[in-house]
Amino acid sequence: MSDPFLDAAIAEAELGLAEGGIPIGSVLVYEGRIIGRGHNRRVQKGSATLHGEMDALENAGRHPARVYRESTIYTTLSPCSMCSGAIALYGIPRVIVGENVTFLGEEDWLRSKGVQLDVVNDARCIELMRKFIAARPELWNEDIGV
């Protein structure tokens, strides 16, 4: 049975790829509904920081701290240092990770901050990233700072 929130994050990743960007998507969920959705738009916006999780947080808009502390963020790929920092900063207590096979982010660090991570290694997420990394290794390396 698929998770509708992970499905929404994957749809965001696919949208990013269709726009010529990097296929990583994310949604922020509060009280059983999506309050922010986004995808990596570094290429599309010429941005240094607009990863999927950052875009979802930005698109969620401004909320009281309590909202973040009661939310779950879904991301198609293991969160990088920057996105992990934002998750910790806002006190988001739970992260659902679509996959960590093609890239292992700061999962141990997030756990050390008390964040619950559920890694599902969804085949769709893995395939999206494998195909993208094979097709655009230079763009992928730029995205992760290599």
Instruction: Give the neighbour order of strands across the main sheet.
Output: 2-1-3-4-5
Classify the secondary structure makeup into a structural class: alpha/beta
| Relative helix content | 40-55%
Q: What overall geometry do the principal axes of the alpha carbons give? A: globular
- Give the number of helices: 8
The tally of beta strands, per DSSP, is 5
User: Low-confidence parts lasting 5 or more residues at pLDDT below 50?
Assistant: none
Biggest sheet layout: 5 strands, mixed
Cα-based radius of gyration, to the nearest Å: 14 Å
Overall pLDDT: 96
Determine the N-to-C terminus distance. Answer: 36 Å
One letter per element, helices H and strands E, the order comes to HEEHHHEHEHEHH
Strand content: 15-25%
